[in-house]
Design a protein that fits this description.
alpha/beta, 9 helices, 258 residues, 7-stranded parallel β-sheet, Rossmann fold, two-stranded parallel ribbon, 11 strands
């Protein structure tokens, strides 16, 4: 039988990921908070449950091979409780994959890797902490840089601002298509661990977004010159050592962001 994959979080990243997983023959079930979203997913040939449906029938998790969490950090006080309940009912063999964020690291200048100081006050930290307490094995935490891809690029927000801050800070971005491919690499290889993921291109915000503005036909951006900080540069050496043949899509390949 094909592996059974549950994915909680069917948004800009989760939906194309679910489609990809379905297309290569896995049994996929999408978990959403919204009844209307559930009905829409079912109407588009995806199996779907609301989180309430799942919590009312936790035995559904008994044969889950892979559980993917793409839910963004939430202020919902029930979220961690619901996630904890799900984790406790997943078999030990289930591989858990969480698309976290490099936003978990404290603000700093210079390189950060998976051992760098994290911000314990962040919602991302709370999710990672819960996952690590409940899953001693078969856990993958992917700390993603800023996501870009179809109809999503920061230039559309920055172009509306009269002045942009932090011109010298390095950008840490990753294309949506790369994230989807990397999640599949982990599902197929069954590797575990915590990994930073972003392009190994780190131009300054001023250089990158000024160039982006030209590509999209915006007026030249204005940057404040007050802050000289270089910001953090996310290292991906650990991931590269595990998957040396993987090649990241350039953050300058803007055709993937339109």
């Amino acid at each position: 039988m094909p592996e059974k994959v549950l994915i909680w979080g069917i948004g800009w990243l989760g939906l194309p990921l679910a489609r990809n997983i379905q297309s290569i023959g896995y049994q996929i079930c999408c978990i959403t908070r919204n009844i209307e979203k559930k009905e829409s997913l079912i109407g588009s040939s995806l199996e779907a449950l609301t989180i309430d449906d799942l919590l009312a029938s936790l035995n559904y998790l008994s044969d889950c091979d892979v559980f993917i969490l793409t839910v963004p950090p939430s202020e919902d006080s029930n979220f961690l409780e619901q996630l904890s309940l799900v984790l406790k009912h997943l078999p030990d063999k289930t591989q858990v994959v969480y698309t976290s964020s490099t936003g978990i690291y404290k603000n700093s200048n210079g390189f950060v890797d998976e051992n760098s100081m994290t911000d314990s006050s962040s919602n991302i930290f709370s999710i990672e902490e819960l996952l690590q307490k409940n899953r001693k094995q078969n856990l993958v935490i992917l700390r993603l840089g800023g996501l870009i891809g179809p109809e999503r690029h920061p230039i559309h927000f920055l172009a509306k601002k009269s002045v942009n801050e932090n011109p010298n800070q390095a950008v840490n971005l990753i294309q949506q298509s790369d994230v989807i491919e990397i999640v599949m690499l982990f599902i197929e290889s069954k590797k575990s661990g915590i990994f930073n993921l972003c392009s190994n291109e780190h131009p300054s915000r001023k250089d990158y977004y000024s160039h982006s503005a030209k590509v999209w036909g915006y007026k030249p951006l204005v940057f404040s010159e007050g802050n000289k900080d270089s910001g953090k540069i996310v290292q991906i050496n650990k991931f590269v050592a595990y998957f040396p043949k993987f090649r990241f899509t350039s953050i300058y390949e803007f055709q993937y962001c339109k």
